Amino acid sequence: MKKILLVAGLLASVHFVKAQSVQLIPKAGLNFSKQAISNVDGEQSKTGFTAGLGVNFKVKSSAFSIQPELNYVGAGTKIKNDNNKYNLNYLELPVLLKYSFGPVYINAGPSIGMAIGGTKKMESLYGAKVERFNFGVQMGGGIAIPVGKGSVLIDGRYALGLTDVNKGPAKAKNRGFMATIGYAIPF
Asked: Which is nearest to 69 in space by CA: 51, 81, 82, 47?
């Protein structure tokens, strides 16, 4: 409950930022994910799809902005020994603090994800239930290339899961790198 209140507080803070400009950012790309599982050897990265929508609120007279997003993320892992891919799909809500150096930017912030698919196959790998909520941290950067009235955004981000998503004795934490392309539409 405390974690949900923390995320709700972060989202509420977006409302109080005096925005100089607001951008709507649809985006799509690839997620290269794997899990660190304590009782399994041979975890490998698997490629999945990611897509979402962000809203960027620029802090007045500053290079800082706050960017909450709602993303679909195809996560999971691949196990070398059994040649199986284990998909664990999430709806993720990161709230990022973004700092821009002209067209180049860096971003970081907390995220919460809710598993929406793939849990049955993961449970067969773990031998236990999957934790539906995953708390983590995302950090990365990118470049904004002006095109028309908006900007094309090329973004790279590392996602570090902090929650043990396996409710059994073995520990399993999500890891991933996301590469997306989007378009920032100014309002």
From this structure: 51
Three-class SS state of 139: strand
Rounded Cα distance, 164 and 173, in Å: 5
What angle (nearest 5°) sits at the alpha carbon of residue 34, between those of residues 158 and 157? 10
What is the pTM (predicted TM-score) of this model? 0.83
Tell me which of 2.40.160.20, 2.40.50.140, 2.60.40.2080, 1.10.3570.10 is the CATH number of domain 2-186. Answer: 2.40.160.20
**Percent helix, strand and coil across the chain, each rounded to 5?**
10, 70, 20
pLDDT (tens, 9 = 90+) of the chain, 187 residues, equals: 555 655 555 555 545 444 458 999 999 999 999 888 887 777 788 899 999 999 999 998 889 999 999 999 998 888 777 777 788 899 999 999 999 999 999 999 999 999 998 888 777 777 778 889 999 999 999 999 999 999 999 999 999 999 998 888 888 889 999 999 999 999 8
Where do the H-state alpha helices sit in 23-143?
119-126
Q: Where are the domains of the chain?
A: 2-186
Per the DSSP assignment, residues forming a β-bridge with 92 are 71, 113
